[in-house]
Amino acid sequence: MASARRIDWIDAAKGVCILAVVLYHFNQMVLQQIDFGQTAIPTLWNLIITALKPLRMPLFFLISGFLASRSIISRGWGEIRTSRVANLLWVYVLWVGLYWLFTESVIEPLDVDVVAAGAHPDSIGGFAAQLLVADTGLWYLYALVLYFATCKLLQHLKHPAVLSIGLGVVLHLGSSLWLPPQWWNIGSLLDYLFFFAIGCHLKPLIDRHYVQCDMRRLLITGALTLVALGIAWKLSALEAPGVKLVLALLMVSTTIDLFAWLTERFRMALLCDVGRRTLPIYVIHKLLIFALVAIMPEALNVEGAFGNGVLAMTPLAMTVLIGALCLLAHRGLNRGPGRVLFTMPHTFRRVAYRTGLLQPVH
């Protein structure tokens, strides 16, 4: 029973994380680009989404490290290259290419102004450079590959947990202290190794202490989170070196306990199902948001109390709708030849096996 509960809170938390990513991008690319006059609702939504920033990706990467722990610690390089690295790289390169083609053939000809759509290289060389430096909205997949490889390399040295987590702290602080804001892509790659390494190497601790909700710990970390967020906000220090690290640890602990408590008491089958299928939502959702950029300003041009009510519910409703449409698209695409959109083709795998580049997973 303990194992089932643990999986449930992981899936539920992953579901919330991916929906928070969709909400963030909808707010950034649609809601915040519309002038609503004196209406305060978009500002309130922006405040809520900004407050969730220390949680959204740290928790996502911590869970990813947790789920990858056995592969990194107990399996050989061949299995890592096949089941983790190769497939992630395939999906990353393929979907960055699809976004590039979509922008080239649809966005630019229609002259749609998509804020935060990411860089759009005008050559194959620029496209390759974009892939290497993760200057793309799909950087999370690339980061996972780098973190897998880093933790696996360090696994062969003495004290791999200390080295991996320590390196994560150094990179996180270095990113905050010295990296220019416009290098957001490099900063993203440097910021989250710490959380992936914690999930990977502290899996036994998480298994032991977070398999069930500790209500006292939940109340303490929840209170500390609210106090720390308030102070950081007042001092404009949310991005200060070390501050976002402490905030993230508090918020991650609080959220894990919260979902352990929720999944012990309620069936959260729908949210858990979303958490088990985060990849299609992650790679597809921005394409849907691109389409919304052209129509949402007109659709939200509603005045009065009714208009405010619609506006207040729109970010949450659109997040759920976009997530559902992504899963529906995945169901239609992930069959026959369409499977190559989400999984490395068997032909490529067979060639890699024959050449020794990859090894089958046993």
TrEMBL record:
Where does it primarily localize? membrane
- Which cell locations does it reside in? Cell membrane
Q: How does it sit in the membrane?
A: Multi-pass membrane protein
- Which intervals hold domain Acyltransferase? 7-324
The alphabetical list of record keywords is: Cell membrane, Membrane, Transmembrane, Transmembrane helix
Q: Which residue ranges traverse the bilayer?
A: 7-26, 55-73, 85-102, 127-149, 161-180, 186-206, 218-236, 242-262, 283-300, 306-329
The entry assigns this protein to a family as follows:
Belongs to the acyltransferase 3 family.
Q: Indicate what this protein is called per its UniProt record.
A: Membrane protein
Species of origin: Kushneria pakistanensis
